[in-house]
Amino acid sequence: MPDADLAGRIRDLDPGRRTQLLGQLRERGIAPPLSLFTGPTEGDAPVSSAQRRILFLTALRPDSSSYTSVNPFRLTGRLDLGVLRRCLDEITARHEILRTVFPTVDGLPVQRVRPAAVAPLPVIDLRGLPAAGRTAEAERLTAAERRIPFDLADAPPVRFRLLRLSAEDCVLLAVFHHVGVDGWSLGVLSRELTALYEAFSLGLPSPLPPLPVQYAGWARRQSAWEDSEDARRQLAHWEACLSGAPDRLDLPTDRPRPPVQSHRGATHGFVIGAAVTTAVRELGVRHGATLHMTLLAALATVLHRYSGQDDIVVGGAVAGRRSSALHDLMGFFANSLVFRVRLDGDPAFTELLARVRETCLAAHAHQDVPMDLIARRLFPERDLARNPLYQVNFTLHNTPAPTGHPSGLTVAPLDTRTDSSRFDLDVNILETDDGLDCLVDYATDLFDAATVARLADSLTELLTAVAADPTARLSVLPVLSADELRRIVYDWNDTGTGIRATPLHELVADQAARTPDAVAVSGGDHRLTYGELDRDANRLAHHLQDAGARPGTVVAVLMDLGPETVTTLLAVLKTGAAYVPLDPSHPPSRTNDMIADSEAAVLVVSGVLPAAVKPGGVRVVAPAAEADTVAGGGAPAPPPPRSPPPQIKNKINNP
């Protein structure tokens, strides 16, 4: 039976029979048709799965701007403010989601649609400022809008502001919370604003056809679908696909991960040229892969090389509007997909691309399951330090930016940069005639700008190499530019740089003379100033000399790391002897072998010599047990030779 006919028959039933039939459909795993939920929304509606997730995250961090989107549209030409206000009123009346609030009822958020009303449009006139300062003030106001929170329980998820820069230059700020609007919706807004302004300027009625469904109706249908057989089938796919997948990607970061994400972020932009873009696109065509698949394979390779992991999980967005009835509707339909990329076995890039292709096709075939449902099923306990399922997001935007020219007025979106990031790394790539414009939003809690710039350079370098030889194995594909490779391999390893010849213990003595009361070493509750460190090292050096330490001999040091270790090593240097550090955690047999092989004359230990350590005829010194004798030392030890004596050199060069 056609969807519309079934929906019509259900609507014609009396309420009791309608409820009974819907229950029977649910028991059989059949979701009711979307067309059943057309028309204006009456009463509270359930929130969609995506909205539930965003409302939860917003409640966790009410001060965060991660889900606030500021979208400036440049209006160039003679603007009729009255017509613009009428357009916004019509758009707000047309799309229920733009006048929806989200109160909590019985502990759960709901959608409550308010009646259509005049859409507020405050006007901020900047024409009184000097011309040079207007743009800067407009940018400041745009950035400030992002930090103004939405009271979603009492206010709709949208607000508008108009900035007047001159008689024929204005900026319309459309500020949305993502609980109500996704990226696709901005194109709908731009198209409808253009069409309505054109019609209203000429005194004509709205040319826009009625919407077949509203967002709350779609949310009701999604709620019913989650109990269907199709939903269970798709969820089973994701559970099988992600079984055993790593829950984190351990990229090298500039700072430790904080226990709770702050979502503070910044943006790094870069461009991949037209020649490389064309070659990469053609590579995908030859192997039956889209540009998105090819770029995802390249990004996964870079993440693999940076992290050392060969099981990489990357997220991505999908529009979530598989029904044509949703194409012209504003709302938050976008869903996230999870792409699990296996890089084990050091495959050729073309082989990896084939793997990614199959992964992407399977993900899109099962895209209806809300991502928060998968996350709740697989990771029921939330880790506030990181995003569940994946921490790197990748989106290829191949829809041209919407523009319009109604009655001499040009409407064009402006680029904006963010000061927040919902992920560790959020890679957004836009196809243009000149190649690929790339923006990476990154968590500033974790990464410095220079680190993200190097990662971007690595992606560019790898794509260039893939375009030249797609059959190369992942391990040989370069992720460093020639300049960076030269700096790391050659410049940083240039041993021709002059080295100061003053020995370490003399440098410490010089510092002790300059700043005797400055803290030199600390460990736990124990601290030593430079004066104390040099004094104690001198006293122990005398004691070690009495035990047989002198130039040409070796002193083995078996001690746990701490301030006393530093004192001991300096004391050995003051005697002119060489030292061999021994790790107390090593097996005694290894320790005995190292003492014997080094031909140590003295063994220094922290406390009591372990019973299993047999130093033979080596003199054992325990500074802690012999504290009174050590403290009796006085004058500094005689300065050692500037270079090792011949017998020590021979041991070093001929082990």
CATH topology of the largest domain: Chloramphenicol Acetyltransferase
Unreliable runs: 645-655
Radius of gyration equals 35 Å
Mean pLDDT: 86
CATH homology group of the largest domain: Chloramphenicol acetyltransferase-like domain
Number of helices: 20
Largest sheet, spatial ordering of strands = 6-7-8-2-13
In angstroms, what separates the terminal alpha carbons? Answer: 87 Å
Count all strands and give the number: 21
The CATH architecture name of the largest domain reads 2-Layer Sandwich
Major beta sheet summary: 5 strands, mixed
Number of domains: 3
Per the principal axes of the C-alpha atoms, what is the gross shape? elongated
**SS content category:** alpha/beta
Approximate strand percentage: 15-25%
CATH class of the largest domain: Alpha Beta
In which range does the helix fraction lie?
25-40%
Description of the structure:
This protein is α/β, with parallel strands linked by helices and 655 residues long. The protein is built from 20 helices and 21 strands. The strands form 6 sheets. Strands 6-7-8-2-13 form a 5-stranded mixed sheet, with helices on both faces. Strands 1, 3, 4 and 5 form a 4-stranded antiparallel sheet that branches. Strands 9-15-14-12 form a 4-stranded mixed sheet. Helix 9 (274-286) crosses helix 10 (291-307), helix 10 (291-307) packs across helix 13 (449-468) and helix 16 packs across helix 17.
List keywords for this structure.
3 domains; disordered C terminus; alpha/beta; 5-stranded mixed beta sheet; 655 residues; Rossmann fold; 4-stranded antiparallel beta sheet; Chloramphenicol Acetyltransferase; elongated; 20 helices; single chain
